[in-house]
Amino acid sequence: MSDSQALTAAFLGLLEGLTEFIPVSSTGHILLAGHFLGFQSPGRAFEVMIQLGAILAILGVYGHRLWTLFTSAPRDPKARRFILAVLVAFLPAVIVGVLAHDFIKTVLFETPMLIAVNLVLGGIVLLWVDRLAIAPRYTDAEQFPLLMALKIGVIQCLAMIPGVSRSGATIVGALALGADKRSAAEFSFYLSMPTMVGAFAYDLMKNRDILNGAALTDIVIGFICAFLAAVVVVRWLLGYVSRNGYALFGWWRIIVGSLSIIALLVFG
């Protein structure tokens, strides 16, 4: 494995960790960056599997809360209901992900212009939603009704189109359904855990025969870098969005998407 390949894998891992939990589409960013850097991974496994590094950051930051949640579940109806809400929200992604996996990986992941356009469109939606004067009905992610959780899970499926953003779809969905900005981001954190673990496991099963030593080395490097970057973002994000909202991320999407469209038109 060359030094340049290792540096590219590390850069893409850092990019994944920095963007996984903010509504800008981590997959869209690393696919576009990989396109312009000439990075290719067998079966596009790298782009999916390094996301588990970011998820481990959630476990590190939220470890105590998760431990309390699961250990109290046998005697606490509120804890059991919240765990059920997250699983209900996760279910649509399981169904759509399994049915559309090959189309997503072989068609959508290989269409950079679609990704760039989705970044711009998603940024416009994020700016619009951020400015809506919606009086929140829910300020605690653990209190979201089951039907609301299911609707958020259905909306999350839109993020299987690269450039849409998993966190962006779930946050916008939760905001539109009556959550405040902090609880919307927090529910997105919790939902990311089963979603990304499931995607990692399914992608590993699908690509186990084509992953060679170099590909696995790339994944390990990207995984570690994604974890380190995501720890920083998770600790910072909830406080930031509570004070400032999501406009910054909307403008970021529009700028990155627009520059990518120009680059694709000029350079291909």
From TrEMBL:
Source organism, top-level taxon: Bacteria
UniProt enzyme class: hydrolase
Keywords assigned by UniProt, alphabetized: Antibiotic resistance, Cell membrane, Cell shape, Cell wall biogenesis/degradation, Hydrolase, Membrane, Peptidoglycan synthesis, Transmembrane, Transmembrane helix
Pfam family, one: BacA
Subcellular location: Cell membrane
Membrane topology: Multi-pass membrane protein
Main location: membrane
EC number(s) stated in the UniProt entry for this protein: 3.6.1.27
Gene Ontology MF term list: undecaprenyl-diphosphatase activity
Transmembrane segments: 49-70, 82-101, 113-134, 146-164, 184-202, 214-238, 250-267
UniProt-listed PANTHER family: UNDECAPRENYL-DIPHOSPHATASE (PTHR30622:SF3)
Further information: Bacitracin is thought to be involved in the inhibition of peptidoglycan synthesis by sequestering undecaprenyl diphosphate, thereby reducing the pool of lipid carrier available.
Summary of the function given for this chain in its UniProt record: Catalyzes the dephosphorylation of undecaprenyl diphosphate (UPP). Confers resistance to bacitracin.
Protein name: Undecaprenyl-diphosphatase
Organism this protein belongs to: Paracoccus pacificus
Designated gene of the protein: uppP
